[in-house]
Amino acid sequence: MTVIKLTFRILKALSVFLLLISVISCQKSESKSNTTKSHSIGPKNGALMIGGGGMTDEMWQVFYDLAGKKSAKLVVIPTAFDENSINYDPEFKILERQFKARGFDDIQFMHTRDTLVADSDEFIQPLKSATAVWLTGGRQHRTADTYVNTLTHAELNKVLERGGIIGGHSAGASIQGSYLARGGRDLNGSYRIISNPEIGFGFVTNSAFDQHHLERNRHYDMFDLLKIRPELLGVGIDQNTAVLVQGNEFEVIGDKYVAIYDGTFWSNYFNEIDTLKSGENKFYFLKNGDKYNLKERRVQRNKFLKPKTITSAEQKEYLGTYLFEKSKVFWNNIVIDNDTLKFQVVRRNIVRDPIPIYAYEKDLFYDTDAEFWFHFKRDSLGNIIGFDKKNHQFIGGLNQKFNKVVE
Predict the structure, then answer these.
(1) How many Å separate Cα 145 from the centre of its chain?
(2) Does 27 map to a domain?
(3) Structure pTM?
(4) Is there a domain that residue 187 lies in?
(5) Closest CA to 203 of 37, 48, 29, 345
(6) Distances in whole angstroms, Cα of residue 256 to Cα of each of 63, 252, 288
(7) Could you read off the pLDDT of 253-289 as tens digits, one per residue?
(8) Which residues of 298-309 are buried (b: 16+ CB within 10 A; e: fewer)?
(9) How far apart are CA 145 and CA 195, in angstroms?
(10) DSSP letter string over 199-226?
(11) CATH of the domain at 103
(12) CATH of the domain at 338
């Protein structure tokens, strides 16, 4: 009897142990799955221009350059238009003139409402040689209803694989995300970002792009979507503004702002990302030239430059305390901490942790965790008398604000 009881206890303990292992394994698997969902991945090759509505000359120039300039082969897909617009310009002559005015010579149009046509080899022929595709504004669900998961959709991905660019604004922006953010107005006058259908082209995974963002006061609508789809990265793009996606990074281009909904808050005021404060409805803005890492879901800092090694004697040469504003709100210190030259901000009685800065060349330093370049100034005798902080630096004729140096 004792042996039976002992055996039973052993089997029971073993069962509990195996169950515990199973639970831990599931938790790890779920955790891994959740981690994967928290990433957004851009196209391996090519580029995306995702615009909020309207285009600046700079945005058009970038699209034209990446399309191949005079050798560009452009395909325009106007399926988001309503029937009145299509009937007004059935051969798309008016639309064609707009692209010719931007420098494009080789232009073809693809339009159908029939999914079977969109899924045919004959229909997709213009995409076979395209270097660029433009998705017009209108209603994104019209584009999704016709093309998602067809041969047309697959061929669009091949345009990117060949190194081409796909662009669009308004409806042509939302369709490029994995979730088809609606951005429409209900009968009661409020906007609804939750869509039917829900699936976009997914050129950027786990993403939702909203447009006309600030102009139409839609900067709080994204939270309605993220409550039910928390794995998504929300990006709200305003008029005359776009994000240029290349790989897992995008750069803001244009006159206005891009709102980021990634569960954190960032401000260049302190040059740091806040993930510690609790609270809902947190978002922040990026402006022209700012960059964002989609995979890491954080503002992209200037971390690509290789620092120049300076001697301890040279480090000491840059030490000093400099008054940066006459109001004495800020003091800026250069200190040596653990054999590294660092910049420290003192705001009234608040002393911030020193930030490492690295030499790029003589009198020119940069901060890998912020957009600042430090330009040290010397007097006529060559003595260092202070420095300026700038958020850009021209290297090889290129503005290196946040940018990776082109080797």
Answers:
(1) 26
(2) no
(3) 0.68
(4) yes
(5) 48
(6) 18, 9, 7
(7) 988 999 998 888 776 655 455 554 555 678 888 988 8
(8) ebbbbeebeeee
(9) 12
(10) B---SEEEEEEE-STTTTT-TTTHHHHH
(11) 3.40.50.880
(12) 2.40.128.50
- Output the six-digit token pair for 148: 């998602």
| DSSP H or E segment with residue 15 | helix 2-37
Do 261 and 235 contact (CB within 8 A), yes or no? yes
pLDDT in tens, 42-66: 899 999 999 888 888 888 888 999 9
Q: Give the DSSP letter string of 68-125.
A: TGGG-EEEEE-TTS-HHHHHHSTT-HHHHHHHHTTT--EEEE---S-HHHHTSTTTTH
- The first and second tokens of residue 348, run together, are 């009234």
CB 213 within 8 A of CB 50: no
Instruction: Check if the beta carbon of residue 155 is closer than 8 Å to that of residue 197.
Output: no
Cβ atoms of 132 and 70 within 8 Å: the answer is no
Range of the domain at 204: 47-299
Q: Identify the residue whose tokens are 């034209």.
A: 64
Q: What is the mean pLDDT of residues 347-371?
A: 79
Taking the C-alpha atoms of residue 61 and residue 96, their distance in angstroms, rounded to an integer, is 17
In 10 A of CB 99, how many CB atoms?
A: 20
Residue 279 DSSP label: -
Upstream peptide bond of 197 is cis (omega within 30 degrees of 0): yes
Instruction: Select the highest-mean-pLDDT range: 87-96, 188-197, 270-279, 301-310.
Output: 87-96
User: What are 270's two structure tokens?
Assistant: 């302190």
Query: Residues near 23 by Cβ (< 8 Å), separated by ≥ 6?
Result: none
Rounded to whole angstroms, the Cα distance separating 281 from 261 reads: 8
Residue 383 lies in a domain: yes
Strand order in the sheet with 204-210: 177-179, 204-210, 233-237, 258-261, 284-286
CA-wise closest residue to 372 among 297, 264, 294, 269: 269
- Neighbour-count burial of 293, counting CB atoms closer than 10 A to its CB (0-12 exposed, 13-18 middle, 19+ buried): middle
Task: State both tokens at 152.
Answer: 């047309």
Residue 405 resides in a domain: no
Strand-pairing partners, residue 340, are 337
Q: 326 and 189: one domain?
A: no
Backbone angles phi, psi at 284, to 5 degrees: -150, 165
User: By the 8 A CB rule, do 183 and 139 touch?
Assistant: no
